[in-house]
Structures are given as structure tokens and as C-alpha cells.
Specification:
Helices cover about 55% and strands about 10% of the residues. The longest helix is centred in the middle third of the chain and has 31 residues, at about 90-120. A four-stranded mixed sheet has the order 2-1-3-4, with helices on one face. The chain has about 210 residues and is of the alpha+beta class. It folds into two domains: about 1-80, Glutaredoxin; about 90-195, Glutathione S-transferase Yfyf (Class Pi), Chain A, domain 2, CATH 1.20.1050.10. It is built from eight helices and four strands, in the order E-H-E-H-E-E-H-H-H-H-H-H. Helix 1 (about 10-20) packs antiparallel against helix 6 (about 160-175) and helix 1 (about 10-20) packs across helix 8 (about 200-205). The protein binds glutathione.
């Protein structure tokens, strides 16, 4: 049995899309960030960093339970367990996948997280931070568009794990920016096409 401790954010959606695209059966447990559930001692036993999502597989490798935190790691674990169809197929794809996954999980995630904090969580307005982080979000979205240039999918001509990570950034995180993907027509087309996949739809609406 796979349990996913998740949140209705881009990170939760990334994990949910991989699970849906691979046809993996799983049970959802919502993590209440507002109540601080992710900082409880019980949750920290699953993820010492106190962040969602977290996956628990009672039937992990060697028929032993395993706990996997970090969205990128969850995505890889699920894809590998499901037979590897979504994984990169050779050294070139592997290198390209790592660039997508690392960029999405660090360079892109950081300004979006800070922009959200400045806009919605800061106890008082922080215009300098909000402006800086909004500009950084646009810079990163521009980078994603350049990386995708001329491709139907992140790795080229087939849907892969990289698309499971990329789609929620564009469909959910970038939606918070004024104009959304208006300045990025290639990404807007990508989101429209990828968003029609049944697995992507299922992952996006899982919670
Ligand atoms: N590097 C982590 C980041 C996870 C993350 O930031 N999760 C957010 C929800 S989307 C969270 O738990 N935020 C609460 C906090 O950081 O206190 C990943 O990729 O899974």
C-alpha cells in the first residue's frame, strides 16, 4: 500500500501526477500546513525537514516499508517501481532529466516559494522582496521556455517524468503571476496540451 501525505500545491501535484500516470494505487492523506501538522513530531518522523509531500510504501524494496520525502525523489521512486517507462532511457536523456529536475526543485522553486511568502504570508507588506521575487519567477519561467524550445515534451518527443515535474510549476505556481503564461506562448501551448492527459488531470484533481 502506498500512502501519500500531500498538499494542494505544485509539489503535491507533481507526486500525484506521477502516481496517476503510472497507474499506481495510493491513498491520499492531506497535510494541514495552516495547522502546522508538518512540524509535528509525528510528521517529522516521516520527514525530518518538516515538508510535504511524503510517500510511505508499506511494500518497499526487499518487501520492507520505505518512507520517501522530497518531491523529486518521490517521483523517481514511483516511476522506477512502476517499471521505468517514464524514466530517462540513455545518458543524454538522463543528463537532460537531471537538469530539468534540479532546476525545477531549486532554481525555480526558490523564487516561487519566496514570492508566495512575500505576497501571502508576510505579516506586513514587503514590496522590495515581492518585486525581486516576482522578477526572479519571470526569469526562471523564461529559462524553462528556452529549455523547452521546439520540443513537445521536456525530453523531446515523449511524455516523461520531467513533464510530471514541469507541468504543475506552469499550471499552478505560475498562475499566481499577473498575466500567468501570457508572455510565454510556447509554455501556454505546452500547458494546454499536457493538461489534457488523463493522468495529468487525475493527478491535478486528486485532492
Ligand atoms: N524540497 C521539497 C520542498 C517541499 C515544500 O516546500 N513543501 C511545502 C508545501 S508545497 C511545505 O511543506 N511547506 C511548509 C514549510 O516549508 O514549512 C520538495 O521538493 O518536496
Amino acid at each position: 500500500m502506498i500512502d501519500l501525505h500531500t498538499v494542494a500545491t505544485a509539489n503535491g501535484q507533481k507526486a500525484q501526477i506521477v502516481l496517476a500516470e503510472t497507474g499506481t494505487l495510493y491513498k491520499i492523506h492531506m497535510v494541514d500546513l495552516v495547522a502546522g501538522q508538518h512540524k509535528s513530531p509525528e510528521f517529522r518522523k516521516l520527514n525530518p525537514f518538516g515538508k510535504a509531500p511524503v510517500l510511505v510504501d508499506s511494500d518497499g524494496p526487499g518487501a520492507k516499508p520505505i518512507v520517501v520525502a522530497e518531491t523529486m525523489a518521490i517521483a523517481w521512486y514511483v516511476a522506477e517501481k512502476a517499471g521505468g517507462d517514464l524514466l530517462p532511457r540513455d545518458a543524454r536523456e538522463r543528463a537532460e532529466y537531471m537538469v530539468w529536475a534540479a532546476a525545477i526543485s531549486s532554481s525555480v522553486a526558490m523564487p516561487f516559494s519566496m514570492q508566495y511568502t512575500a505576497k501571502f504570508l508576510a505579516p506586513e507588506p514587503t514590496p522590495w522582496l515581492l518585486e525581486r521575487m516576482t522578477a526572479a519567477c519571470h526569469e526562471m519561467i523564461g529559462g524553462l521556455q528556452t529549455l523547452l524550445d521546439g520540443r513537445a515534451y521536456a525530453l523531446g518527443d515523449r511524455f516523461s517524468l520531467a513533464d510530471c515535474l514541469l507541468y504543475p510549476v506552469l499550471a499552478t505556481s505560475a498562475k499566481r503571476l499577473d498575466g500567468w503564461l501570457e508572455p510565454y506562448p510556447a509554455l501556454a501551448r505546452y500547458v494546454e496540451a499536457i493538461g489534457k492527459r488523463p493522468g495529468v488531470l487525475a493527478g491535478m484533481t486528486a485532492c
